[in-house]
Amino acid sequence: MICRASSLLMSAITVFDTFLKRHPNHESAPEALLYKAHSYLAQKPSDFFVLPNPAERDISVVETAVVIYREYLEKYPEDKNRNEGEKKLEEAELILIEKDLRVAEFYAKKKKCAGVFLRLQHIENNFKVTTEKNLKRLEELNKKCPPKSKEEYFKIENKEEKEEPVDESESKEVSDENSK
Questions:
Q1: What is the pLDDT of residues 91-101, one digit of tens each?
Q2: Residue 111 region, left (φ>0) first, then alpha (ψ -120 to 50), else beta?
Q3: Which domains are seen in the chain, by residue range?
Q4: Model pTM?
């Protein structure tokens, strides 16, 4: 059933692409572009409670949907379906923000502030965080890894990696065992 729905959505995307290429100035072009974005977003991973969170799975279709929604909103600012496009764009962006926040929280637990910094920078550069929950998560991450320059983070982490002592007797024992 899921494979059939996915193949139908991919067929719809192909039809919308063909229509948009052949008739870019048609009065229905805005709707075709919007429905193309909807078709991508409809393929997002399920958030059924027994499955992993959609942000933890392949969400490349959501990334594609965001690009197309933004194109739609930029090309057709006066379209009658603009509100629908904005709502769907926000829904898709929330999924991508969730992914970046989860990765940043993982890096924060591992005390890898450079990774946290890069994910937060990606969020800041690409999305507008609007939910109170996500704003609090950003605040917590900034407390764990206070904002610094990218160069400072990488200097600090590289220095820590170099400072980790390597017990040569252990590594020699391991190499001796492997040679036997």
A1: 999 999 999 99
A2: left
A3: 2-179 (1.25.40.10)
A4: 0.76
